[in-house]
Specification:
This is Right handed beta helix domain-containing protein. This protein has about 500 residues and is mostly beta strands. Among the domains are: about 1-75, no CATH class; about 105-330, no CATH class. The radius of gyration is 25 Å and the shape is globular.
Length: about 500
């Protein structure tokens, strides 16, 4: 049976009976269901042509829901109902060639939720837009002073969240805009330890089991994560997807001289955490956009912390692909993360495998993994942060990475800080001439096997012992009981 919803009056149902077997979009939906192994009643096809009709349809189960291609705006839904709550199960929701604009400030929460099970949410371009027509933020002073239609987040929630099990989000693109503050990364704190108030907006959140993100794109233009997993998520799969943020030179913060600008209010210093922890009290006392703690510290000349550096790049968003504590296991395959705070940041996962993925130009680290994590055939650089920082010294990792040269690297970081023990690490070099920016690979701990096919030097710290290092680049051994073998330049015939 076919149902057409929303063609004229979205609150009415019109039943029609002509065959849909020749409709190519129905055939695509059926093939998609077969490809993902979903058990969906393909005999029930629901066509919708308004957001109100879509909102109603996705709350029922066992359907192929097809939305009419076109451009829509979330404000077509009534205030208080501006979301797409996919609480039904066993649905294929086909949003091919559908574009939805979401004016910043018109909804206070994430607007796509998949709480049902065994759904395929396919296609759709969802773009947060500024009502003023602003696209890229360049005047961060003016931006952060407009808290209603510019610097307006979603109270930390994600645009698209999946709390049900066995769902697939495929081929969906999100452009995420609107947060406060924006333009300073995490300098002024994140979570409860923020100074000036925080209103984040994230991309995709997975909180269910066995959910997949496939062929999606997140253009992150707000402070928040791109794709992230929280408890009770488990067995998550992220593949064929792109997350991209924006970097900003740290020296540009010194150009913000308006007394209301956050860099000016903080005396161009990074607040220490003990000041950040009082941020909530300051926000309760805030007047005219100024927190009490920010005003007090400035007026009394109190030292807020270390000066904002002038020689680094600041990531304006959080992590590209991130797992939180108790966020379960994850597989990341054929994904790319660019210009986020952390690239593929999985060190808190119960288990993680990264296959044929790329993380470049990120601000704090490009990769990190949990104990026994695996990186296979992947690529990274060290332009603004280490290739990997081995967060919390997680051990027994198996890593195979190709290092991209970073001739214009800024900041004082090493290429990598290998912490934790019993790793098996292979570092390949990319094609092309030898790099001249020879930042070191620093080994801190014990009993790892490291094959360095690159020109970058290896330094074993005094704390390093029992490691086996095979390296083309020079090796400095300050530790004890390490075995060092030098090799010729690999891939010389490709230079």
């Amino acid at each position: 049976m076919n149902r057409r919803i929303g063609s004229t009056r979205p609150e009415m149902l019109e039943t029609t009976f002509p065959s849909r077997l020749g409709n190519p979009r129905v055939m695509v939906a059926v093939l998609l269901m077969m490809a993902f192994g979903r058990t969906v009643n393909a005999g029930t096809t629901t066509e919708v042509s308004t957001l109100l009709a879509l909102r109603s349809a996705v709350q029922s189960s066992d359907q192929t829901i097809i939305m009419k291609p076109g451009r829509y705006t979330l404000t077509e839904l009534p205030n208080g109902s501006r979301d797409i709550p996919c609480s039904g199960s066993n649905n294929t929701i086909d949003l091919s060639d559908v574009y939805v604009a979401v004016p910043v400030g018109t909804t206070r929460r994430g607007y796509i939720t998949i709480s049902g099970d065994n759904n395929v949410f396919r296609g759709g371009v969802f773009e947060d837009i500024y009502p003023s027509g602003l696209d890229d933020v360049t005047d961060f002073s003016a931006y952060n002073q407009n808290r209603s239609t510019l610097a307006k987040g979603l109270n930390g929630s994600a645009v698209l969240s999946v709390s049900g099990d066995d769902n697939t989000v495929a081929g969906t693109k999100l452009t995420v805009r609107g947060s406060f503050p924006y333009g300073y990364g995490s300098i002024y704190g994140i979570g409860a330890d923020n100074v000036y108030g925080l209103d984040k907006r994230c991309g995709i959140l997975l909180k269910g089991k066995r959910n997949t993100v496939d062929g999606c794109e997140v253009q992150q233009r707000a402070f928040g994560h791109g794709i992230y997993m929280q408890s009770p998520a488990d067995e998550s799969v992220i593949k064929n997807s792109l997350v991209e943020g924006v970097m900003r030179p740290s020296k540009d913060l010194y150009l913000e001289t308006n007394p209301r600008d956050l860099p000016a209010r903080s005396d161009y210093k990074i607040p220490p955490k003990d000041d950040r922890s009082r941020g909530r009290r300051g926000r309760r006392e805030r007047g005219q956009g100024r927190s009490a703690i920010g005003s007090k510290n400035r007026d009394h000349g109190r030292d807020l912390g270390t000066p904002i550096p002038t020689d680094t790049m600041i990531p304006l968003s959080e992590d590209g692909i991130r797992v939180y504590s108790k966020g379960g296991s994850v597989t990341v395959e054929n994904c790319t993360v660019k210009k986020m705070r952390g690239g593929i940041r999985l060190y808190l996962a119960s288990h993680a495998t990264v296959i044929h993925s790329t993380a470049v130009d990120c601000g704090h680290t490009n990769f990190n993994m949990p104990s026994r994590g695996k990186i296979i055939g992947s690529i990274g650089n060290f332009a603004y942060a280490p290739l990997s920082d081995f967060r919390l010294s997680k051990s027994r990792q198996e890593i195979e990475l190709t290092i991209l040269p970073s001739p214009d690297a800024v900041g004082s970081h090493n290429l990598a800080d290998v912490q934790g023990s019993n790793h098996s690490i292979v570092l390949h070099r990319s094609e092309g001439p030898l790099d001249t920016n020879l930042r070191p690979i620093v080994i801190h701990d014990d009993n790892s096997t490291i094959r360095n096919e690159t020109e970058y030097p290896v330094i074993l710290q005094p704390t390093a012992s029992g490691n086996s290092v095979v390296s083309f680049g020079p090796v400095t051994d300050l530790g004890n009981n390490n075995t060092i073998t030098r090799i010729q330049q690999p891939n010389a015939d490709r230079e």
